[in-house]
Structure formats: structure tokens, C-alpha cells
Amino acid sequence: MYIKEVASSLYPWDLADEGVETCVDNVVEHSLVNSVYLVGIMHKEKRPLTNLFFTHNPKRKFYLPEDSRIYYRMDEANFKNTPLKPLYSEREFLQGKDWLDELTTYGRKRGLKTGAEISHTFFDCEVAKKEFPDVLQKNIHGGIIDRHYCCNNDDVKEYMKAIFYDTVKNHDIDFIQTCMMLFAIGEPVKAPWFMDNDPENKVGALLGTLKGGCFCDHCRTKAIDQGYDWDQIVDDLKGLERLVHATAYNNLDSVMDNHVLMGSDLLETGLLLEYPSLYQFLDFRMKSISRLFKEINAYIKTANPNIDFRYNNYLRYPELAGLDFAAVKDHLDSVRDSDYTEQLGNPDKFKRKRNTLLKIRRGIGYDKDLIAAFAPRPNATPEIIRESIKVLSTLGVDGLSLGHYDGATFELLDAVKQGMYEAGIEIRK
Asked: Of 27, 195, 350, 397, which has fewest CB within 10 angstroms of its CB?
């Protein structure tokens, strides 16, 4: 089997602490990486995420990033159409360098493909809540949803487009990748007390969107402009939301209806037939995301017509967040899937990984590149890494992607190379 790419992400603090050359050389020599990218805008999250301490960082045991800071230069003129402006790191050891340029310069010397990632969030949520609360998504009761920005807000959309455009225009990269949060999906609705919870309860997952977003005025305006009866949709969904979250301690008049619904074997189809407003809500969000991707893709192609615009899927059911891969296939050049089953010890024998990759492939077709991620992190073993790569070799993927270097051990990095050899995977030059 031939693939095009073995990619590895690197964080600015990786490069600062270990050195750019050391990081790149390590992933190339141990894992046959031919593509490196900087997580240039990173959400607030403890690193390393799944183990207590870094495995090979010589300067610190762990790191707590600032929220959604940019680690490379930006042209402020590109942000003239939005009140949101780039926020940069205030950490002294990360200031004064364009970490994307640092990585791409050395990557080019080694003949590597280069890229940048705009991660889950692209603006500091606490700053947004204090200064620009209107840009955040709203739940069905009008409350702010943390870390989720509404793409139907024109200021948000302009800021997104400016970040993508500026990154592509002013840096030597082949692809720009993002796992930005789309519409908030809420929490799955659980079964009532007399039933065991099924982690694959798809009706519960669907109903969870009622606790998600977005129900803001910008969504209302855009929906009405597109012919949706938004006020009726919201009124219907408020009634359903009250029912599905009823307990013995609240909404007592609906609790029996809740128990009967969640105790039944009703399919998602039956629920959508009974509540057409729920389908219309999901349909509107899907069209909103498709329109967003279309605009971003078209805009960045004016900066570099050869850039690869890649979405990094992190959701088990992305359709609940508004992402229908068939609807966006013409607006994406490739997709990376972030299934990290390996870090959990592979409890499901790669079932979810297979299902998700095939779902994405079905949506984007056979001509778009599909990059499969895996996790060389503690709780994985060399055997699990090799087994994962062998499974991936049967699924027609176009590339592999390490997730992530900062928590990997060298034993697991070596297993990548060995796994590719055992699976008969070769990199097409």
C-alpha cells in the first residue's frame, strides 16, 4: 500500500524547549515523518494531555498554554473588517520568534511538507465574554456557551477568514488544518434510572443537541432569510428540551413522558419524523457550516491557489455539530480524523476508528485525501501502534498522522516505522 504523507504536529513550546532541529529530526528518524506542522493557535489545555509529565522535554515537566494565542506573525491590516484582533503569547520564552517560520525553514531544509493548524478555539474565551459576548454561541435559553463561536456572526466569520488568509499568505506552508469547534452538540441525554446507559445511544446523542447551540439573534436572522420558521423551530425545541431533561426533581409534569421516550427503542428517524423542527434545526446548522467552509476555502485560495485546506475531525458524530462531509467535500481538500483509540489501550478493537474513517470516506469520495491519526502516547504499546497501522493499511487512507509528539515515547515512535514495514506501507515520493 502506498501513502503520500506521514505527518507530525509540533507545539511552539516543544520547539522552544527541545529545539526545532531536535524535534523534527526525532520524528523523521524514528517515524519516517515527511510532513510537519505547527499547532500555531492552541486552545487552553494541559500538555501533555493524557499523561502526567512530558516524556522527553528537557526544560519542564508539563505546560499550561494560554488560551488561543497566536505563535507567529500576523498582518494586522487583514483584520480591519472585524473588531476581533489577534492575541499573542505573553510568555517570555515564546515571544520574539515566529515559530511557524522557524519550523518551516528547517522543514524545507529536510525536504518536508509543512503546515499550520488552527486548533479548537481561535480567540480567548474569557476576553470574548468580557469584551465581545455577542460572538459566542447561545443555548436555547440564551445563555453563553463557552469556547464556541457562532459562524453566523459576521464578525466571527471575518476573523476566521482573516486568520486563515493571513497564515497562508505570509508563511511557507503546503496545508492549513483546523479542528475548530463547530456548533456545540451539548451532552448526550442519558437513559432513566431504571435502564443501563448505552454509550452508543444515538437517540440520546441526537437529543443532546438541544443543550447545544446556536440560538443567537444572528442565527435567527440568517435562518429567517433562508426561509426557516425560526420562532416556531425554537418554540418546538424548547418543549422537547423540557421533556428530555425532566427528572423527579424538576419538570415533574414531563417526567413520565421522558421515561417512556428514553426507555423505548425509538430510532432517530422516528424522533425526527415526530419533531420536524429538530430536523430543520440540524439542516440549518449544516448549511451554515458548509457556507463557512466554502467562504474560507475560496478566500485562502486567493492567497495561495495550491494550498490544501484540511479539516481535522475530532467528533464521533460530526453531523450533530453541523458537519456533513458530503455537503463540504467541494470546500475541503483533505480530512484528518483524530481518533486516538490507542491511548485508551484499544478497548473497542478499532471499531470506532474504522467506522469514522469509512463515514468520512463515504462523504468526501475517493479522490480527496484522508489522513488517519493515531496516538503514540502512554497506555498505547508498540504492539497496539503496529496493530493500528495494520488496520489503517486496509482502509484506503492516504496518510498517517501522529497525535502527538509531546506525549510520545521513543519506543512508540519507533513502532510507527516498524508498523509501516509490517503492514507493507510505503511513502510515495
From this structure: 195
